[in-house]
TrEMBL record:
Phylogenetic classification of the source organism: Bacteria, Bacillati, Actinomycetota, Actinomycetes, Pseudonocardiales
Residues covered by the 2Fe-2S ferredoxin-type domain: 6-82
Pfam families (alphabetical): Fer2 (PF00111), Fer2_2 (PF01799)
InterPro entries: 2Fe-2S-bd, 2Fe-2S-bd_dom_sf, 2Fe-2S_ferredoxin-like_sf, 2Fe-2S_ferredoxin-type, 2Fe2S_fd_BS, Aldehyde_Oxdr_Iron-Sulfur, Beta-grasp_dom_sf
PROSITE patterns: 2FE2S_FER_1, 2FE2S_FER_2
Protein's pathway: Alkaloid degradation; nicotine degradation
Keyword terms of this UniProt record: 2Fe-2S, Iron, Iron-sulfur, Metal-binding, Oxidoreductase
A GO cellular component annotation in the UniProt record: periplasmic space
GO molecular-function term, one example from the UniProt record: oxidoreductase activity, acting on the aldehyde or oxo group of donors
Organism from which the protein derives: Amycolatopsis thailandensis
Protein's UniProt name: (2Fe-2S)-binding protein
Amino acid sequence: MTTEGRRIALRVDGTEHGLAVDPRRTLLDLLREQLGVFSAKKGCDHGQCGSCTVLVDGRRVLACLTLAVTCDGGEVTTAAGLAAEGELHPIQRAFLEHDAFQCGYCTPGQICSAVGLSAEFADGRPSHVTAPVTATPDWTDAEIAERMSGNLCRCGAYPGIVAAIRAAGGTP
């Protein structure tokens, strides 16, 4: 380890970065303070609200609880990085079409969580409400609500959020 920190390499929203980080630095602080990537929001900074949700190697994580050094060699995708070649991701389009936001503060985390949820469905991974646990999960409101329960919306835009995720169902 150097005096500046540990050297890591990671790709954030398609851009390669090699940098020194303090081993205690969270992924959220690295994104916002070192890389100037502000899509992931700092809400509670305790892993309780989900505003900081991003995808690391396709899986959703709470960036405020994830140490940046654990992402060495990984692919980090924020809500801003989901749009490919100027085209919104289907989940992003569905959020717009279903008014799935009000103030918008939680929206990037909600969108990343919804993309991660879609991948979980595609993989056939059950949740607490999947019955029986060996069944392929269905795109029900209860299944979506359970999987999105770690992402809070102070404005109460949940009906639009669930509708958007159901409408975009099957689009990881």
